[in-house]
Specification:
Helix content: under 10%
Number of strands: 31
Distance between the termini: 104 Å
Radius of gyration: 29 Å
Shape: elongated
Length: about 475
């Protein structure tokens, strides 16, 4: 008996029940139940596409726009119920007043063929995603929007593989009223925009934001709007030289950005605890967004604390501006605790006089570290004085007609900005510095410094023998 295969009554009933169900798996009723999980929006259309979408979302968790189908005149709000997915294989058209409002766990995917024109994707929930879409249209201010109507707290937003072109703003976040955590915006292609490709504005409550692997090109504000025309912009709220966490945009990474043909590529105001790395830029010049009132710089940083900029490669471009937070002419905060590493700026083929790298920094108990910097036909200009300044492995060549290659303006005690200077027990470490003009002559300008306020150590300018130190 031990080797006999026997069935208990319970086992037999279970087995025969499973066998009995097998024919049902392919019967029309079961197939209809499965297909009901996806609704073709065409089946619900009479004369009004927004109404068709609303009824389709009530009928099934997934709503599909088939390829070659155009849903036009989408000019009102369509609220996606929680847990719904919109698959766009065709096209959605509107006049700028239409929007899809994403609640919790809502998803919009174009599967690499879907198009949305002049219709907004308005994110108001957690665990949402937008992917593989082509978006365009100058009618709305922004094509993807996260604003004050969103819930108090949202989490887990993924935006991936969007192609956004011929529009104002691509992605716009107005973050003062709520909090968004764990955001990934990746693999985008932004071109021919009037506004910013990605603007994360007054996002003082957000954290854990990744903006990476984007191509940004031809950003040119010609409509006279102030402060439009930036590649990627992030901003906190009120400037404060004490840098309170509650007022700063913070805990974010901007990485793997390729940009060209714009006035300003990466911009941060009043930020803390962030990293900008792996940026390749070409033709970042004042020819773009001429009346927008923004500085010309590949990377522009205003009034920020505790940040790293690493591996930046710029050609025929304005370099970097790292400076004060200023409001109505008042200097309110100065950058501190920053690292700048592995930077190349090559403007040898540029016919324009472009900005090199200009850094203002200061405050006691703060540091600035600049390492592995190579500038060709550009200058490095330092203003003010943090407590610790490290300049190591610096190579600069600038045309003599454009001034000194290296300018160190430490003595601002009679300047209104001098109130940010660290004056006691300061340390400046300069090592392996080459700063010359095209003829190999020394090209260094250092303000006179009262030794009472500064201690210089490890000073070693590496200059050609025929040049003279200054």
């Amino acid at each position: 008996m031990g080797n006999d295969k026997t069935f208990s009554r319970r086992t037999l009933l279970k087995a025969t029940g499973s066998v009995a169900l097998l024919p049902l798996l392919h019967c029309p009723a079961v197939l209809a139940l499965e297909s009901a999980r996806t609704a073709n929006v065409q089946d619900y259309f009479h004369s009004d596409w927004p109404d068709a979408f609303r009824r389709a979302f009530e009928a099934a968790p997934v709503v599909e726009i088939p390829k070659n189908v155009v849903c036009d005149n989408v000019n009102s709000a369509i609220f996606m119920p929680e847990g719904r997915t919109l698959v766009v294989r065709g096209r959605i058209d509107g006049n700028g007043n239409g929007r899809f409002v994403l609640a919790d766990n809502c998803h919009v995917s174009g599967e690499m063929s879907g198009e949305i024109h002049n219709v907004i994707l308005d994110i108001r929930g957690s665990d949402c995603s937008i992917s593989q879409l082509s978006m365009s249209g100058f009618a709305p201010v922004a094509l993807v929007f996260i604003g004050k109507r969103a819930p108090k707290t949202m989490r887990n937003l993924t935006i991936d593989k969007l192609t956004i072109q011929d529009a104002n703003y691509g992605i716009l976040r107005q973050g003062f009223h709520n909090q968004l955590e764990n955001v990934q915006i990746t693999n985008g292609h932004f071109s021919r925009l009037q506004g910013d490709a990605i603007e994360w504005n007054v996002a003082i409550n957000d954290r854990d934001l990744l903006i990476s692997d984007h191509v940004i090109e031809d950003i040119n504000c010609t409509n006279g709007k102030t402060n439009w025309g930036i590649g990627i912009g992030l901003a906190g709220s009120t400037y404060d030289n004490d840098y309170p966490e509650s007022q700063a945009v913070k805990h974010f990474v901007v990485a793997n950005i390729t940009g060209k043909n714009c006035r300003q590529l990466v911009h941060v105001e009043n930020g803390k605890h962030f990293i900008i790395r792996n940026v390749t830029a070409n033709n970042i010049t004042p020819e773009f967004s001429k009346n927008a009132g923004i500085d010309n710089a590949t990377v522009a940083i205003y009034g920020c604390d505790n940040f790293t900029i690493d591996n930046i490669n710029m050609t025929n471009s304005a370099g970097m501006l790292i400076g004060y937070g200023v409001v109505r002419g008042k200097y309110l905060s100065i950058p501190q605790n920053l690292r700048l590493n592995n930077v190349l700026l090559d403007n040898r083929k540029s016919a324009m006089k472009l900005r090199g790298i200009q850094i203002s920094s200061g405050n006691a108990v703060s540091f600035v570290s600049i390492t592995r910097l190579k500038l060709l036909s550009a200058s490095l200009e330092m203003h003010n004085q943090p407590q610790h300044l490290f300049l190591h492995d610096i190579s600069i060549m600038q045309d003599a007609s454009r001034g000194a290659a290296l300018k160190l303006h430490f003595d601002l005690r009679k300047d209104v900005r001098g109130r940010f200077m660290a004056r006691d027990e300061t340390l400046i470490s300069l090592r392996n510095i080459t700063a010359v003009n095209k003829n190999g002559q020394s090209s260094v300008d250092i303000d006179r410094i009262d030794q009472k306020y500064i201690h210089v150590s490890a000073l070693n300018f590496s200059l050609p023998d025929k040049s003279t130190k200054r």
